[in-house]
Design brief:
Number of strands: 3
Helix content: 25-40%
Number of helices: 2
Number of domains: 1
């Protein structure tokens, strides 16, 4: 990977972790999926985390890559697409 610009190097990201802190004490939510683990949150917050994780995976897949292969530039582009879609 020598000779690559820093934003072209893979980030070694293996998944997304989502944490929601607005649930009542008696509410427990855990969702695990391809490349993500989501914990906590109110029903609404947890739902948004699930939607975001699914769209994130869709955008990575659309590039023909696995999450481990995404570099900093691509991650920035994916984040921008997420903001536009959600």
């Amino acid at each position: 990977m020598t000779g690559m610009r820093p934003d072209e190097r893979p980030l070694n990201v293996t998944g997304l972790l989502g944490l929601g802190f607005d649930a009542r004490p008696d509410e427990k939510r855990v969702t695990r999926g391809k490349n993500f683990l989501l914990l906590g949150g109110s029903r609404e917050t947890h739902g948004r985390m699930v939607e975001t994780a699914l769209v994130f995976n869709e955008l990575v897949d659309k590039r023909g890559k696995r999450i481990e292969q995404v570099n900093a530039r691509e991650l920035s582009e994916i984040a921008q697409e997420l903001r536009e879609r959600l």
